[in-house]
Structure formats: C-alpha cells, structure tokens
Amino acid sequence: MITLLPSSSLPPSEAAVADRQPAARIRPSGAGPRRVFVTGKGGVGKTTVACATAVWAADQGLRTLLVTTDPAAHIGNVLEAPVGDGVAPVEGVRNLWAVRIDAKVTTAAYIQAVLDEASLRMGAEGIARLREELASPCTEEVAVFQRFLDLLLADAYEVVVFDTAPTGHTLRLLELPLSYERQLQAKVWTSEESRAVDAAQTERMRCAFEVMRDGTRTSFVLVVYPERTPIAEAGRAWGELDGLGIRTAFVVCNQILPEEALSNAFFRRRRSMQLEHLESIGATFPGVPVLPLGQRTGDVRGLDALRDLAWELYGEASIQDRSNERRKAGG
Questions:
Q1: Which one, 123, 199, 209, 232, has least CB within 10 Å?
Q2: How far apart are CA 183 and CA 145, in angstroms?
Q3: Is the torsion defined by CA of 172, 175, 177, 182 positive or negative?
Q4: At 312, which CATH number?
C-alpha cells in the first residue's frame, strides 16, 4: 500500500500526523546525531532536496553539516553561497555548515600522508614500490572514502546531510571497504605498527557501517520523479541497500504537476501518467513512505525557495519562520 506524505488529499487530522513522520527521520534521536543520505538518479532533484533538508534542520536550531560527494555537485548554486573542500559556515543560515569532497584534493592529501608515514620506516626502494601501488585507481576511492568516514563519524554536528553522487556511484562508495581490504592485502610493508593501523582502519569502517545500518541514527532518502526509469533505478538501489542491511527511510517523488496545469491537454496527459506511477510506486518500495513534491515553476535557488520546499516536505515551521512571524506581529 502506498503512503503519500504529506498530501492535500489527506484529511487535516491525518495530514498533521503524517507530516511529523519524515521530520522525525531528520532530527537526531536519543541514539546520537542523525545522518541523512539523499540519493537518486541524476537530474531528479536530489541536491535540491538535500539542501532543503539541511536548511530545514539548521532552522530548527540543530547544528547541521551539508556534505556533497557528487563530482558534479552544484550545492553552491542551489544555496547561492560558495562551498569548497573545507568545512565552512553557510552565509544566511545560522547553524549550517557545508563542504564538498573534492576527489583530487582529497587523494593528493591521502597519498602524501601515506608516503610521509612510510618514509619513517622504509628506504628509497620501498617508497618507490609504494608510489606504484598508490597509482592504483583504488587509491582515489579509498582516499574519498576515508574523508567520507571522517565526516560520517564526526560528532560535532547534530545532523549531517549527505548530497550523494547518482545512485550507482553512491552504492559503489558504500561498497568501498572491499576495495580497501584488497589494498591492505597488497601493501608492501607489514610491520607490527602498520598492521595495528590497518586493524584500526578496519574497525573504523565497521563502526561506520554499524551507524549506517542503524535506522535511529541514519536515514536514507531516495529521490525520484514519477516516470518509469528513475523509479526502476531507485527500486534497484532500494534492493541493494536492503541487501547491505540499510533501510530506506522515505522516498521523495519530485516534479509532480499541479492541478492548475490540467487546462492544457499535454499536461493533462503528463499528469495522468504521473498519477499512474504514483499508484503503482508502492509495489516498488513496499512499506516505505512516499512524499510527493510539486513541480516548481522555476529553478529552486536561494534560501527562501529552499525553505518553501522544506515546508512542503516536512510540514513544520522553522524556528526562523516562527521568529519572523513574532516580529511581524510585534511590528
């Protein structure tokens, strides 16, 4: 059975209860900080949903970090604020910080750190062999994953929102411990100290996956639009995540045409097609709430547009909204 949350077709009492459900999967629980992963096929609006979610959480008074692992990231354009490879506050949003994991910068720093550590116990010949090993394509993946772990396991924030790369890349990221394990097996140095470091890294990854599998600490959000291909791709991702022991918190079905568009025959046909997919989407994501999100008339850019979208998703006024209302009432 499909659960559409929130929906104007729901009675007010039911909508009020429904609206609290997705919001609860964004807030931290008693188990600790909340990590929110937003993913989906390229072009479905996952970056917009991730940005809106992060702004909403920050507006609730929660220390929030927005992270993008997408090489084609444009969160800076959506936020209308610069976002670089170092964690920095987002102008105009109290309690919000953002960072972009730059693969080239991250990999260069990782390689240098490995070489610096190895130079303390290896000669020139060993360093040369190590440089060859680090030229492996796996090195960039491992370096990015290490940076990802740093941010995932950080306890300085109450909410960490990850704007991930398109679905296939995200699943690859989550499977990186296998690549890392192979790289450890191929290492040329096997001192007791290095084995201890490797064991610590393995334990770190185990802790990270424990966090991601814990629905009280991590929420995975799939974004689709109501068409066959993005729903099918997200369905495959849902199955693969489930196979990793990771549950999906909810699905956002984006770009639904409003009823005002029905005066046009083309849009009537489009909306009819969308509604058919909405009716059948429950079979693809059994037991997972689906949140409809209306088509916007233009790009969602800037804080006002993001807060408007977050209201439609989570149905709750932010601390900032309530503060603005009090100021207007007082004025």
A1: 123
A2: 13
A3: negative
A4: 3.40.50.300
CA atoms within 13 A on the CB side of 295: 14
Question: Which pair of structure tokens corresponds to residue 233?
Answer: 């791709």
Nearest to 177 by CA among 219, 215, 148: 148
**pTM beyond 0.70:** yes
**Is 3 a member of any domain?**
no
What digits encode the pLDDT tens for the residues 287-303?
899 999 998 888 899 99
Q: Which of 209, 213, 235 is nearest to 222 (CA)?
A: 235
pLDDT at 141 over 50: yes
Nearest-angstrom CA–CA distance, 75 and 268 = 33
Residues 177, 44: Cα–Cα separation, whole Å = 28
171 confidence band (pLDDT: 50, 70, 90): low
Q: Give 229-253 pLDDT, tens digit per residue.
A: 999 989 998 998 888 888 999 999 9
As for how many domains the chain has, the answer is 1
Residue pair 35/152 in contact by the 8 Å Cβ criterion: yes
